[in-house]
Amino acid sequence: MTITKFDGFVRSFLALDEFARIDRSRNGLQVERTNETITRVAFAVDAAMEVFEAAAQWGADMLFVHHGLFWGNESVLTGHHGRRVRYLMAKDLALYAVHLPLDAHLRHGNNGVMAHKLGLGEVEPFGLYKGLSIGVRGVLPRAAGVDDVLATLFGNRFSPLGILRFGPEEIRTVGIISGGATGEVEQAVEEGLDLYITGDASHTVYHRCREEGINVVFAGHYATEIWGVRSVAEKAAADLGIETTFLDVPTGL
């Protein structure tokens, strides 16, 4: 397997080119390696030293992440940024990043996988960001409470950043946008959804949600963005025959 073939595989189902005009992330290969052949690919949420070290220890040839190192502007290779790039090159570890296209994909994206986990029906794109949908919405197979939804997604011991219980106790309609999408609760309100799930929390939406009568879960940025990388890891292993692993390095946020 070559890096070029892996890049073609990713682009065959994730819309990197379609999102290029609105996504600050430099999606695709961000750091190359001297040998284009890859046999082991690690998957993780963040491009950070702790993750790089875990990938190198596992023996990865490439690391696939949701949050890469390059975000559309030139970054001088000094300080922590320089140390990260030098480490990758010293370990001959390639870095590949996919941001918004991995949020938006209805089957392998963060939001699509969560919708599948919840068993949502009538799933469709939701949450416009600069003209493109990055989230999903759907209908639960049966009415459930907020705690039931969280237990299905994350387990009974999960502690979200916050919950606003301002909507109906029996939830049917759900909108999901992973990561930092607190402001997009306005779209959930406009569509009359019972529950909106996102990652980050924000004081600024509290009163709006209370007055509109909608349930909102701030589940954590990391917790809502493990789903896509894990799904792509499974697909890569099945379709390409390469060895993959998911590196779980939670931030608690």
The largest β sheet comes out as: 6 strands, mixed
**What sequence of helices (H) and strands (E) makes up the elements?**
HHEEHEHEHHEEHEEHEHEHE
Oligomer class: single chain
**Named CATH architecture of the largest domain:** 3-Layer(aba) Sandwich
- Write out the strand line-up for the largest beta sheet, numbering strands in chain order: 5-6-8-9-10-7
Query: What is the number of independent domains?
Result: 2
Instruction: Output the CATH topology of the largest domain.
Output: Udp-n-acetylmuramoylalanyl-d-glutamate--2,6- Diaminopimelate Ligase, Chain: A, domain 1
- The best one-word shape is elongated
The radius of gyration is: 19 Å
**Approximately how much beta-strand content do the residues carry?**
25-35%
Give the number of DSSP strands. Answer: 11
The average pLDDT is: 97
What class, by secondary structure content?
alpha/beta
Features:
Udp-n-acetylmuramoylalanyl-d-glutamate--2,6- Diaminopimelate Ligase, Chain: A, domain 1, alpha/beta, 2 domains, elongated, 10 helices, 11 strands, 253 residues, six-stranded mixed sheet, five-stranded mixed sheet
